[in-house]
Amino acid sequence: MLDTQEIRSFGRRRRWDILVGLVLIAIVLATGAYMVRLLILTDPDKARLVRQPLPVQILPATVTALSDVIGASGSIEQSSTVVLTAHVTSRVSKVPFDLGTIVKEGDVVVELDDRLFAATLESSRAKADHATKQLHRMEVLESKGLGTAIDTEKARIDDAGARMDVLQAEIALSNTRITSPVEGVVLDRSINPGETTNPDQKVMTLGVINPVMMVADVSEDKIGFVRLGMPAEIGTNAFPGKSFTGEVVKIQAEVSAKTRTFQVYLKVENQDLGLKPGVTGYVRLDNHRMALAIPSTAVINPVGDRATIFVVDRDNRAHLREVRRGMAASGLTEILDGLKEGETVVTVGQFTLRDNDTVRPNRSAPWNGK
């Protein structure tokens, strides 16, 4: 039989075991309750099962600086074309420039035989000198009463006509030397030495290459983000490692049915005339602007320019809303329509939401530096 001391010791151990067991049960129950609560707070599906607000993360729509780079390939073209024509009939003496060569402003590109025109000018000047002297004599005679006003007037008309003939002869002589009005490259030459020109005959076509045009093919989905005056950085295969600066001066209105691109014309300074028509390269258009934006993760179905988001009201209810989106850059999406500055959007947890769900919002980490 157990003595009294042993019975007491057994009873104490028994009570201790029961106490430890109760403590363990309490810990397990508390841990379970905490886990259930944590699941409800973090798992939307579990929260919906027990009819609790769904946990989401939110951020307000904010006007911020968006920056994007639009890339495109293209080629160099002349900025404009100048067609040179002959103005007189004469034999061609010299054509010093060939296709692809560079001409400077004022360079003589076609020389014509000028002997007949020089002789005509000399004769016209002699006749004009005689007419001027004759007019002077008639004015003197009239002043002395020995001549008539009609004779003086006729002499004055003859003098004016002679001076006009001199001017026409000077112009004709100058037209025997066809000069370049621009700095450019010879694109077409349609006259050769020994041939005879006719008035208004095309003799040469020049392409202006200072500045030049970079014609870039930009994808049609970027057409809304390209604007006149937009700056650009240009690189070429002909000058690796060297960049040029340009500016958008023209945007083609029509999109190519084959390539689904539209052409953008950029004016590029070309002081050393190194860039020539046909040189290929690439363009980086810098698109910077202030815009209303939200994190791109808030956009549920970004298809085309239309998308949907969840907006949380003051009663913590989430409402599905359609918005029109713009450019996307640096994890942000521009909102063009359907949302106001300061309205709160769901950035995490939106894919399990239904319209008009009650939510438990938790503000996301700042994304705009605020």
Task: Provide a quick synopsis of the model.
This protein is α+β, with helices and mostly antiparallel strands and about 375 residues long. It has four helices and 17 strands. The chain is rod-shaped.
Structure description:
With 370 residues, the chain is α+β, with helices and mostly antiparallel strands. The chain has four domains: 4-42; 56-66 and 290-363, conserved putative lor/sdh protein from methanococcus maripaludis s2 fold (Beta Barrel); 69-77 and 205-288, Efflux pump adaptor protein, beta barrel domain (Elongation Factor Tu (Ef-tu), domain 3, Beta Barrel), CATH 2.40.30; 114-175, Helix Hairpins. It is 27% helix and 39% strand. Strands 1, 2, 4, 7, 8, 9, 10, 11, 12, 13, 14, 15, 16 and 17 form a 14-stranded mixed beta sheet that branches. The chain has a three-stranded antiparallel beta sheet with strand order 3-5-6, with no helix packed on it. The longest helix is centred in the first third of the chain and has 39 residues, at 4-42. The mean pLDDT is 85.
Largest sheet: 14 strands, mixed
Q: Please provide the count of β strands.
A: 17
Terminal Cα span: 80 Å
Secondary-structure-based class equals alpha+beta
Radius of gyration: 44 Å
Query: What is the CATH fold-level name of the largest domain?
Result: Elongation Factor Tu (Ef-tu), domain 3
Strand content: 35-45%
- Helix segment tally: 4
CATH architecture of the largest domain: Beta Barrel
**How much helix is in the residues?**
25-40%
